[in-house]
Amino acid sequence: MKTEDVIGLESRYLVDVYFRYPVAVARGEGATLWDVEGREYIDLMGGYGVAVVGHCHPKLVEAVKHQAERLMICHPSLYNEVRAQLLEKLLKAAPKGLEKAYLCSSGAEAVEAAIKMARRYTERSKIVSTMGGFHGKTIGALSVTWNPRYRRPFQPLLLKNVEFVPYGNLERAEKAVDEDTMAFIVEPIQGESGVKLPPDDYLRGLRELCDSKGALLIVDEIQTGLGRTGAMWACQHWNVEPDIMCVAKGLAGGVPMGATLARDEVARSLKRGDHTSTFGGNPVACAAASAVLDIIVEEDLPGRARRLGKVFGEGLERLKQKHRCLREVRGLGLMRAAELRFDVKNILMKSLERGLITLYSGRNILRFLPPLVIRS
Questions:
Q1: pLDDT tens, position by position, 323-341
Q2: Domain-embedded: residue 319
């Protein structure tokens, strides 16, 4: 098919809820994509941060093919060896104290499970989230997502007892977290709002605040986890151990998968039937995730993200010194952003013409989430 044919069919049948790039991708390898007509692109979008081990990594492809030939679905009411092996591997890689996992199919689902765990464990009703924070667009996850544009059309359905405070501001957090607060949910580094890093004492301060008030700290590592920032989990840069952690995006390398990791006593607060998923922990996704975790460790992708992120960050800084239109560059590892003084849409389109696919945050921020296997 030609590009215009693919675009025509999708435009005719797919619900129009996405900003679309005029590219019809046919295949990928590493950090490179090719469209249906064979044109090559460098991928700095990475499926919105999903392709941490790159497109079609041979070990990942082999794991999926092997499992697909054996068993593709196994409801969690039945035990499965591939799921068992993945759970052990994932929790061994998790921050200290996280001992149980709920498996699902997306980041938003992981957040939904986290909210339910916090409610059940504390029996409280209030959640505190951050301005600029993004946690998904299902009703529960949307309730703790800041952007009014996403929230406003669905306002009557959202959770009522949610308070938003400025990201990075401990003083405002201290005023918001009280004896009715079940949890504070936070991204270690805000992604959707433009790769914003916290002050050095922020996450540690939130940990101490939650402890003092009997609230849970939920860390959303959906975009920041799995080596993206130069550590396996971004919260490890600040030596913070969450009560609940949400994981997704790159977890299964492109196969839909999410996970909610929790302290044992928090996880046990959910009772049988409280929260289930037909596809959660299906064997193909588990085999893929197991391969991804092996690849991250064997190829030291967090270390690679640190090294290449330093090179990338220095390059962006040089551009900032050279071009006044660049207001600020920021990031950690291979999670980077460049904030400009004007709308970036034309830059996104011109980049495509030069064989580069990048990402955006709002109207004036370029965001970069390349595969961690990208060549320097």
A1: 999 999 999 999 999 999 9
A2: no
